[in-house]
Amino acid sequence: MTTLAPPVVRGQEPTRSRGGRSGSVLVWMVLPAFIMFVFFGIVPLLGVIVLSFATWNGITPEIELTGLTSWKAALTNPGLPNALWVTFLIMALSWLVQTPLSILLGTFMARQSRYRGFLAVFYFIPLLLSSAAIAITYKSLLDPNFGLGAGLGIEALNQDWLGQANLAIATLIFVVSWQFIPFHSLIYQGAVRQIPQSMYEAAQIDGAGRVRQFFNITLPQIKYTIITSSTLMVVGSLTFFDLIWVLTAGGPGDATRALAVQMYQLGFQASLMGPASAIAVILVLVGIGLSLLLRRIGGRADQSQMEGA
Amino acid sequence: MKRRNFLTLSAGAAAGAALAACGNEGPGGSESGGGGSASYWSLSGEPGEPYRQAAIDRFNKANPDSKITPTFFQNDAYKQKIKTALGANQAPTLIWGWGGGGLKSYVEAGQVEDLTDFFAKDAALKGKLLPGSFGAATVDGKIYAMPVETVQPIVLYYNKKIFDQVGVSAPQTYGDILDLIPKFNAKGIAPFSLAGQSRWTNMMWLEFMLDRNAGSEVFDNVFAGKPGSWSDPAVLDMLTKVQDLVKANAFQKGFASTAADTNADQALLYTGKAAMMVHGSWSYGIQKANGGKFVPDGGLGWMNFPPIDGGKGDPSNTVGNPGQYLSISSKATAADKETAKKFFSSTLVDDEEKAGWVKSGGVPVIANSESLFTGDDAQFQKDMSAIAAGAKTFAQSWDQALSPTAAEVLLDNIAKLFQLQVSPQQWVDNMNGVIGK
């Protein structure tokens, strides 16, 4: 499910190519996606907002509107501070790990033309697998009693990867990075390849080395790509659920219980659909807030960055 | 431009959250058409699934006009799946469950058929089932489910080969268990196997430790909703003992990430990586199916949980599932309900059903099955039957007895207790907060 989330946000791109060509054709092309989005995005969202002001155990036919009761229950839930903290920890750590690696891989793939096609396909494979499948695989490989470490007799691999609070978070970040770095590398690869070769030639004439070229040309030129990629990472990390659920089920204790997991446990295990919906609304608001914040930091995306090229 | 960007962005974030929210959507296709075709959801895997399938095949063969279509799910996933389906009016005709608090919430929501009259009219049918199995099927004096399958007390299993290898004998008291823990740890064998990620597995420890310490009254009070029931000093004592076990490395390395759904906990026992395990009687069938020659060669030992020195509880008491339960959806068509009732009164109590569950290694809820305990599993079945029949109290598993809301808080706090994340006193305070909810 989470793998679907990032592409949706990319809806911001078409606005740039607005106008010029025949507008009516574009409207028709947008329509199928728009209808899908209304039915599977907007309608459930409205449902969730209504449910957050209701009391429902998930199985009674009647849903009772009870005002702010569910919000009070959700906000005073003793697990909420921890869930918020875990969510932001996962967000920050996965961004910190993924961004540098994705930029480096993307730059590498954009330049090494001989292996580029092959490696691009190769690196992309993890993204094609479902999160649940990835989680089951890693859970089996990392099992301290039957996993890779025990099987090969390698003591260093034989840690309690998912059974200790800090290790479990670290393992989770690793698996998330393994899954999503390919996608972000691909974005960066595309961005780096759009930088005009003349800039690098000019820099070479001025005596700039490879490292200097990277920091003075490549990085500034992919600034907006970094904003886009970061938005996808940050907003996407809010929706990590399946991976966490299969790997740790929010455990050990509540060490990996992010907001999405908390929401699921409240809604589908504790039968408290109202407070669970309130958490869902909080997730939406946090997602919107973060997206806007990142855009503010990045400046106006529609400005040309090709001045002087 | 700016506003439009805002909208696309917010819509994107919303879709992400909405998609995450719909995590457990049913597979559809569970719609039951006319002409008495009933759908049936239950648990997958050994030892139960083949016998559930066999009963349905038998019924469909004997009744060509009506058809029951089964779908099987993993244990932990099923518990959420069935609730979602009920709420979405997508429930199967036949709802498999554990009775108790879960069934009560279905009853309060008007989702399941009242079967009181059905059993009143068919006294012969009721007589074929163990009388003790109806307790968890009864809500406010009315019967809402048919007891099926097997009586499942929770017992202490041990690996006899490992005990011989280490040169120790089976524990007679809780004190013996404490003495055994360092001996196994010294040999690099985990004293106990525990699937801690599943949480209800940890709960089985609390159930026995509290019962042996203080008897069944404490949980009875909790169940009855008496305020502050967890504040009994015996509870604090029990919780401290549990945390002492964790601190003494009584459970295998990484127990907090072991999940019961993959049967990794059983595998630890039959591969000799762990010496003992507290688990339900259904585990016998799993170990028999997956453990190769371990069970046939007599490697597996079992006993009722031993008494705790100085404890007030009756050592004959046990905990577990007095049966499994099938309810009929109140939303099903009249024809489908008839099919389901016919399934109840014919196939589910026939001789093949009884023989099948005996063959699975279990003790059927169908009465007078003792004469069938003649195969390889006879000793286990006789012992389970004796434990179930001899128990002064056969308590239902806590998470099944309580409401889903209280059960979730219970399981959450139990997981934290085993992680040493909450102190016994905090545990008591947290749990007192949800009594009667």
UniProtKB/TrEMBL annotation, chain B:
<dbReference type="Pfam" id="PF01547">
    <property type="entry name" value="SBP_bac_1"/>
</dbReference>
<feature type="signal peptide">
    <location>
        <begin position="1"/>
        <end position="20"/>
    </location>
</feature>
<protein>
    <submittedName>
        <fullName>Raffinose/stachyose/melibiose transport system substrate-binding protein</fullName>
    </submittedName>
</protein>
<dbReference type="InterPro" id="IPR050490">
    <property type="entry name" value="Bact_solute-bd_prot1"/>
</dbReference>
<keyword id="KW-0732">Signal</keyword>
<dbReference type="InterPro" id="IPR006059">
    <property type="entry name" value="SBP"/>
</dbReference>
